[in-house]
Amino acid sequence: MRNYFSKNLSLLIVCLLLIIQTMFTANAQINNAPLRLAVAGITHGHVPWILGRKDKTDITLAGVYEPNTELAQRYAKRYNLNADLFYSDLNKMLDAVKPEAVVAFGSIYEHMAAIEACAPRGIHVMVEKPLATNNAHAKRMEQLAKKYNIHLLTNYETSWYPTTAKTYQLVNDSNNIGSIKKVVIHDGHQGPKEIGVNKEFFDWLTDPVQNGGGALIDFGCYGANLMTYLMKGEEPLSVTAVTQHFKPAIYPKVDDEATIIVTYPTAQCIIQASWNWPFSRKDMEVYGETGYIVAANNTTMRLRNAATKVEQTQQVTSKDVAVYEDPFAYFANVVRGKIKVEKNGLYSLETNLTVVKILDAARESAKTGKTILLKK
Predict the structure, then answer these.
(1) CA-to-CA distance for 206 and 238, rounded, in angstroms?
(2) Residue 138, Cβ neighbours under 10 Å: how many?
(3) Where is 241: in which H helix or E strand?
(4) Which numeric CATH code is attached to 158-322+347-373?
(5) Phi/psi at 26 (5° precision)
(6) What is the pLDDT of residues 211-269, one digit of tens each?
(7) 122, 157, 262, 343: which has the highest count of C-beta atoms within 10 A?
(8) Cα distances (angstroms) measured from residue 16 to each of 7, 8, 9, 11, 56
(9) The whole model's pTM is what?
(10) In angstroms, how far is CA 133 from the centroid of its own chain?
């Protein structure tokens, strides 16, 4: 009898080990398989980032939703994509191709519709900046993401910058510049028309509903995102903004110039968002108690503190600091569970809900001429 039970117990253990090994092997295969990714909308000028991304093996393009058939045909030809990939109905595409994740490249206003379609299906989403045009949309999107347990990320170009990651690292080193006192962030370019964006992008980028505003939204969001990140998610006390129309003949419905002042108990941020810069720029200045950091672009920094005494220039790459320079690789690894979204990080839902609060308040401040209190 004892031998009988001993033999059966040994067999049971072997079976269990085989089952566990099979499960681990299956999970490893899933984690290493290309992510099935679909695109919701292609009117955004940044959509070539994903449609032209053919040299990577971490993602498979499963489908593209775009109701503008002429635009769909144009992009299919430009990027040599099979016409069968394109759908004019978002829900039909999602049900037909069953993607694991979606990237939204339509107007900002359309982000909520993408979440409403994807979340109940358990499909993870990354939208282009900012998260939403207003607080009501942002809260609805948050509710859906949490209810259906999906990742909802927001992609900014400055999130890929090695200088952004290095600045955050230095700011959190109290011996470098001390606590933050003032941050000045400049973002923008000569204007959408001036830099030659396509008609589909221009049409919604200059629409107060589809974009939520002009330069204030288009480039003010960068500063709000970066400052919220540097402040580790702390919400500001107040927001004051001024917008102007320097080119009403080109941009009659939305602002082309905006300055936003965001205040905290111990710090202040000045966001200068413009469609009137003489050249494209995305740079920031961070001033602490004992020094400063100027992130001039994605790889060049200028630094000075009490120890260095004179300003020093430093080149930074992804070899020097941990940063994903490809947002789609980051998204794929998040979905696969290989990395976790940093709480209050640049892509995180928490950070980007605060960004929308700041932009909403800035729009109201510019409209009313009053400072908007977020904390009373």
Answers:
(1) 27
(2) 24
(3) strand 238-244
(4) 3.30.360.10
(5) -65, -45
(6) 999 999 999 999 999 999 999 999 999 999 999 999 999 999 999 999 999 999 999 99
(7) 262
(8) 14, 12, 11, 9, 37
(9) 0.91
(10) 14
